[in-house]
Amino acid sequence: MLSLRDFWRRHRRKFIITAGVLGGGYILYKLNDAHRRLSELDKELTRERENDELIKAQMQVHFENIQKIADTMTLPHAMHYLSDRIKEEMDLSHLTERLIKGKGKGQLSTLTSSEKLELWDRLKILSFSRLVLSLWAMTVLSLYIRVQVNILGRHLYIDTARSCGSSDLPEGVDALDSHDQQKFLACADFLANQGLPHLISDMQTAATEVLKGKQLRDIFNAPALHEMIIQIVDTFMTMGSHYQWVNYLIPDDTRDHNQVAASSDDNTCVFDSTQFDKLMVETRAVLSSAEFGNVVEKSLKNVVGSLMEDIEVQLGGSNLLSGMPLAKLLPRVAQMGPLLLEEPSRERFIQIIARVPDVELFFTLLYASMPTS
């Protein structure tokens, strides 16, 4: 026992130094190992950040390209076809011709006073109906087509990313074939084919309700005319069940329909494909959402405001500021409907819609959201 104590006293310093060296070495080893692991983790996080940034940049470019496709290809075709259909279905020439012939040109009028009043009343209702219908259809169809191409573009981006081996993709989302894509885009003509007759009828009902009691001799200035157009829009949008107007754009249940929407170039829209049905169900869910309803409301208000600026310029700001009889306003109202759907005016109004902040945000979020099935 004494020898051990003597041994410890003689060599204690060496043991302490050795233990300190070994302990320090172990600590340094652990520190180096932790530093190495942290360095590897930092490199991995850096790679993930760079990959995320690359994906975000790719998605941004793809998103911008999708918007250009909507503006330059899909939308012009659908708008042109819709414009032709509205001209066919809402032609006012038969009313104006009867009123002109009824004047008799120096002879006694061939129309009685009651007949003239009836014709003028019909012309009043149809003129405002066509104007509001044209601006509504232009606004909502442009938004609907943008919904279509964003949903389709997002699916195609996912298909491309999957083919490149990405693991960050939702399960159960099957690739789309070109036939489904073509049918889906062709359904932009549903409004012009199936939806338009009901749209015209309901719009005339809304216009009749708002214009009830408005006489041709009543004086209207710019604020009064603006308010009347807004009232027709609001009356129409709140008719029937919740978001009933969505049914003018898309069938109420694609699974229960076997309709064919033939477009002007003989493309068809047949509701019989599983992947096609999924696209349509997803689209209807977007169109029926409160967020899309808000976008439609904001867009319509902007379009009506810009339209009123055009009407004031064409009629002379001072004339409309002081007010003029409704009878003198009707010819301009009747002309503005078709003008809204002509290419130069249409392009300007569609750009106005696209620049609405709520619209920009809505489609950015729509494209970025991932489908779950």
Textual characterization of the structure:
It is a single chain. The protein has twelve helices and two strands, in the order αααααβααααβααα. It is elongated and about 145 Å long. 75% of the residues lie in helices and 1% in strands. Residues 255-268 have low confidence and may be disordered. Helix 2 (93-102) runs antiparallel to helix 3 (113-163) and helix 3 (113-163) packs parallel to helix 12. It has a two-stranded antiparallel sheet with strand order 1-2. It has helices at residues 2-89, 93-102, 113-163, 178-186, 190-211, 222-237, 274-287, 290-315, 317-322, 326-340, 343-354, 357-368, and strands spanning 219-220, 324-325. It is mostly helical.
First CA to last CA: what distance?
Answer: 80 Å
> Describe the biggest sheet?
2 strands, antiparallel
Whole-angstrom Rg: 34 Å
Mean pLDDT comes to 77
The ordered H/E elements are HHHHHEHHHHEHHH
The gross shape turns out to be: elongated
Tally of extended strands? 2
In a nutshell, what does this entry contain?
The chain is mainly alpha-helical. The chain contains twelve helices and two strands, in the order αααααβααααβααα.
